[in-house]
């Protein structure tokens, strides 16, 4: 298991057994996904061009918000997941950067690129499963119990982890189209974990997910949930909308329940599945993620007033993207595009109204 480079000089993790994690830089062209996008999102070249221009017009009217209006891929990561509803995409962009403006000091400073939360990846808390579900959804596991060492990883770090990972997932057109499924594993939860939770953390994280994030969360699965999890959940529950609550499933250790909503072939045996892919080592995933710090460094280099600035180019064939969604060899489940990071721009109070 190691990091290698393909013929285009893109890095990838060779997991063994034919499974890899790597980057792709192209929109989907497979007939299945093109047809699905047309049927479910009314995505055609003409409708896409029209929506892009309408969104640009709305953003031009938001004088204090500086965004890369000509970066088509940036705008599409809001439009496509929201089925080209221009007003919803505009509102989502506004909410995203108002959140950054209001909570940036606590939740952004010092936690805006993968190397800042390298210790989380090293811990093995995050696992990206190497196969998409039957409907094209990506699958991610986050372990919020035994592998979460609260003496080294704060709740602020965990919130940043979600933001950085979702920022990456939004770059993948297939994730924009099909969405993701998230598994939260609370095996080993203790009072030290419960003590990390607070109404402010709950409010900020859930407001960001529900108002700022266009990413289609197809389902959220809670496993190994104990009585202590119930205590923690009572802190978050008041901030969970009905729409999000309807996507949540509580399985505890009932793997037959989990495999009714996620194909067993995509899940490792520990979760009732048959996937034989080796699990990516945490430190290796950390090495891989850190290769793409340049994608996020626009935030580090901008003044406090959050003005947009062009990102530095990565030495890796000018790639500015964070990481891929894992896939089995020969597949097309990738993350990554030449696109500005969300944290690289925002509201500028010095602009005129």
From TrEMBL:
Domain CRAL-TRIO intervals: 113-279
Molecular function as annotated in GO: phosphatidylinositol bisphosphate binding
Source organism superkingdom: Eukaryota
One Pfam assignment: CRAL_TRIO
Gene3D superfamilies, sorted: Alpha-tocopherol transfer, CRAL-TRIO lipid binding domain, N-terminal domain of phosphatidylinositol transfer protein sec14p
A GO cellular component entry from the record: membrane
PROSITE patterns hit by this protein: CRAL_TRIO
Protein name in UniProt: CRAL-TRIO domain-containing protein
Species annotation: Anopheles sinensis
